[in-house]
């Protein structure tokens, strides 16, 4: 997957009404760990999002072989 970069401008520039192109700030969104564990297919890989205690999420990108190995390891960890 391609890398993405986010560049933020200083707060003083954002709050003084700067109207030059490209100076608008993105809306702030809360970062919570609420929600279920999810695995989605994105492009050629899979993205697993695991909610963490205390907030936040662990995000891991896996290929098909890694998904298979993780599934086997988790199944093997279950009591008989």
Task: Explain briefly what this protein structure is.
By secondary structure, this protein is an alpha+beta fold.
Structure write-up:
By secondary structure, the protein is an alpha+beta fold. It has 2 helices and 3 strands. It has helices at residues 11-15, 64-77, and strands at residues 38-42, 45-51, 57-62. It is flat.
Distance between the termini: 38 Å
Strand line-up across the major sheet: 1-2-3
Number of H/I helices: 2
Summarize the main sheet: 3 strands, antiparallel
Name the beta content range: 15-25%
Helical residues, percent: 10-25%
Oligomeric state of the chains in view: single chain
Mean pLDDT: 75
The sequence of SSEs as H and E is: HEEEH
Task: Give a topology summary.
Layout: H1 11-15, E1 38-42, E2 45-51, E3 57-62, H2 64-77
Antiparallel strand pairs: 1-2, 2-3
Essential attributes:
single chain, 80 residues, alpha+beta, three-stranded antiparallel sheet, 2 helices, disordered N terminus
